[in-house]
Structures are given as C-alpha cells and as structure tokens.
Design brief:
The chain has 24 helices and no strands. The chain has about 450 residues and is an all-alpha fold. The termini are far apart.
C-alpha cells in the first residue's frame, strides 16, 4: 500500500479498536505509532520522535487552561452555585407553562459560564433540578431531555475546554473564540426554551404548574447569583480586554470560584480533596487523549493525508458550502459514537486545512472563529444524539424511574432546535463574528 492508503485505512482500524472498547487515547497512540512505522519503513525515526513528542505536547503553556477550568467547575459544583442559579431562574420562569424545565435550561447556561464541561454541567444541574421537576409533575421524558440538552451548554458558553483545544489545534485566539461563542450560546439557550414551550403546548400533560414567586423573593434570588456573574464577567471580560492571558484568567476564575465556595460553606476539607482529585483525574484523561491525538496526527502528517485531502477537494471544484455541509453532517454521524473531545482532536487537523483553502468570503481569522463555533455546535449535538449521547446516559442514570427510551424521545425536540440553529449560524456567520465587524 502507498503512504496515503495506509493513512486512509487507519480510520476504520481506529474505529474498530474503539468499538472493542479500547480507550480512544490509547487507540490513537497505538495507530499513530504503528502507522508511522509503516509509513517510514523503520522504527528509528519513530523512536526518535517519541523522545520529544510528550515534552513538545505538554510543554504548551496554554494547556494549563484545561485543569484550571476543570477545577473552576469542581469548585462551582461543590460551592452551591448550581442551586442558587436554578432558584433564581425558577423564580422568574417557574410559574409559566413548562417554566421549571426552562429554568433548568437557564441554570445550565449560567453554570456553563463557570464550568467548561458539559457532563459536569448536566450531572450537577440534574441533582438540583430533577427533584423539582418531579415535584411539579413534569414527565420523565421532558425532564431528562431538557437537562441533557441544557447540559450541552457547558461547552458552548465560555469558558469551554473544547474551544481551548480547537484554538490550540488551529492556532486561533482563545479570547476571540470565547467571545465568538457567546451569541450562539444565548441562541442555543433561547432555542431550548422555545422547544419546551412548544412541547408542553402539544403535550399539556407533560408539565405541571408552579405558583408565581413574589417579586421580593425574585430579587433576593437574583442577587444571590452575583458570584457567578462576577466570575464570568471578570474572567471572560478580563481575557478579552487584555488584562490577563487566558491561562491567567483561568487561574483567577478557579481561585475566585474556590473562594466563593469557601465563603458559602460548601467547600469543606473533604470536598476540597474530592475537587482536586477529580480535577487531576479528568486532566490526566484529557492529556492522554491529547498525546494520543498528537501521535496519530503526526502519522497523518508523515503520510501527507491533510495536504492531499486539501488538494483533492480544491481540484474537484466543489462549492465551499457543499464541503462545509458535508463536514458538518459527518460530525453529526460521528457524534452518535464518539465523545466531543476525541472528535475535535481526531478530525480538526484534517478538516481545517481543507476548508481553510476555500473561499467563504471572509478573512482567515473570521473563518477560523466561525468554523470553530460551527464545529463546537455540531459536536455538542453529538452529546445528546442516540444511541451514544453521553449526556443522555448521565441524566438517565440519575433519573432511575425513567426508561432510556423515554429519554431518547424527550431529547427529540431539542435536536430539532439544534438542527435549526446549525442552519441559522451556517447561513449567517455574523452571529459568531459580529465583534470583528463592529
């Protein structure tokens, strides 16, 4: 086989290893090393590369953002911020038809502002919202579907671990990527709430009614969420204004969230140890996947697959949007079987060189930001796409009286909302790059 054929065949082999439950980081590392040996025809250059690859990968200063944002999310989880967010949202929305489910989505959006993980957002908010949804007569289908979809806002609302990885892979500005995701994140939350409003009118028995909250209690509940707003404004605003680098902003956010959790009485010694332990465990898992992806992408570079793919696409004369739509559809398919981080690490080094060669009528910087937001959105959809939507499993495991099939049905309206949002942001890039034109 030629080098290019070896690279092409590596993908089905990789998917086969994943199907047999090999950890994806290890699978990419094995295929990367084995493929490099086949392409080079010798172990010597591969062994030489392995001496420096881990150091080159992990010495990237910007990677320090990941454990800091994960720690920020852990402190927010143990600091009681999730309950205050849900209480504030429910005080304003809870009395409306489907309002408690809307409040859960709104609280997920707020929690996503201090937590860069969708799984953590979904699991944390489920602990607070599921009992309330059950108490007010919401069906298991709507409850689990709304929380699974709302949890995806954890990686869309800045700060986002997945956006950081994308920025490192494509050499984009992290601060501008965070800003580019703000409006799409707001559109996502509004779209989910609209989906709930339509759903409860089509199926009135799926949601009960909650009494309106007095204005004094609404104001009190809103004031209680000032720590979340402060951390979000200082971290994201400070990064974009240039007061500190993204890594420094992440450190500030982690320290600030930890201090708030301590003052709230939620960060006991045991919870501090648990937060640090879970942060270390999650960081180790992500870093190992990053290492495996670095080895795999190095093999693809040896085989010149990205360059050949870019040349082939440009030579075929495909319309730029035809290529983009094909890539987005492929992401939706992959999302049924793979997690978001793995998809980003595996595909972006191949797809980005291809699409960046095409003319979308905007600058290279604007395209990089817009494409990053689009990829993030379709990857986010994969978290709630059956049969292997990770958020669906997380939420369903916490709602023990709800069969998995009901959760699958409950997430359908939110998938429709997601599809419409992808179409909207594809047709109107201005929603992502508005600040570059202002």
């Amino acid at each position: 086989m030629t080098k290019l054929e070896i690279a092409i065949w590596s993908f089905p082999v990789l998917l086969l290893l994943i199907l047999f439950r090999m950890p994806i980081g290890l699978a990419m590392l094995v295929i990367g090393i084995g493929g490099s040996v086949l392409v080079n025809g010798s172990w010597i250059p591969v062994l030489s590369q392995l001496k420096s690859l881990p150091f080159e990968t992990f010495s990237n200063y910007s990677l320090g953002i990941i454990p800091l944002f994960l720690m920020m999310g852990q402190f927010a989880t143990h600091g009681g911020l999730s309950k205050s967010l849900f209480d504030a949202a429910a005080s304003w929305l809870g009395h409306r038809k489907g309002g408690v489910a809307m409040a859960a989505v709104g609280a997920c959006a707020g929690f996503g502002a201090v937590c860069g993980s969708s799984l953590a957002t979904a699991a944390t908010m489920a602990q607070v919202a599921l009992p309330e949804l059950k108490r007010f007569g919401y069906s298991g289908s709507l409850s689990t579907g709304a929380l699974a979809a709302g949890g995806t806002l954890g990686i869309l609302i800045p700060p986002s671990v997945v956006l950081v990885i994308y920025a490192l892979l494509t050499e984009q500005n992290i601060a501008k990527l965070f800003l580019a995701a703000v409006v799409p994140g707001i559109i996502a939350a509004a779209g989910y709430m609209l989906a709930i409003a339509i759903y409860v009118r089509l199926k009135p028995d799926s949601a009960g009614q909650r009494d309106a909250t007095p204005m004094r209690q609404r104001i009190k509940a809103t004031i209680a969420i000032w720590p979340v707003l402060t951390v979000f404004i200082v971290v994201v605003g400070g990064i974009y204004a240039g007061f500190f680098t993204p890594t420094e902003g992440a450190a500030f956010g982690a320290a600030g969230t930890g201090l708030i959790a301590l003052l709230n009485g939620g960060l006991t010694k045991e919870r501090l140890v648990a937060s640090l332990s879970q942060t270390a465990s999650s960081s180790a898992m992500i870093f190992f996947i990053v290492l495996g992806a670095a080895a795999f992408n190095s093999f693809l570079a040896f085989a010149q697959l990205p360059q050949e793919a870019a040349l082939w696409v440009t030579s075929q004369g495909f319309a730029p949007y035809t290529v983009l739509i094909a890539i987005l559809i492929l992401y939706l398919i992959l999302g049924c079987f793979m997690d978001s981080l793995s998809m980003i690490l595996l595909t972006v080094p191949i797809f980005f060189p291809v699409v960046s060669q095409l003319d979308y009528g905007m600058s290279a910087e604007a395209f990089g930001l817009w494409f990053g937001v689009l990829v993030l959105i379709v990857v986010e959809v994969g978290l709630i796409t059956p049969p292997v939507g990770m958020n669906l499993f997380v939420i369903n495991s916490m709602a023990r009286n709800t069969p998995m099939l009901q959760t699958y049905r409950g997430v359908v309206p939110f998938l429709v909302s997601d599809m419409l949002r992808v179409v909207l942001l594809t047709a109107f890039p201005i929603f992502s790059i508005w600040f570059l034109t202002s």
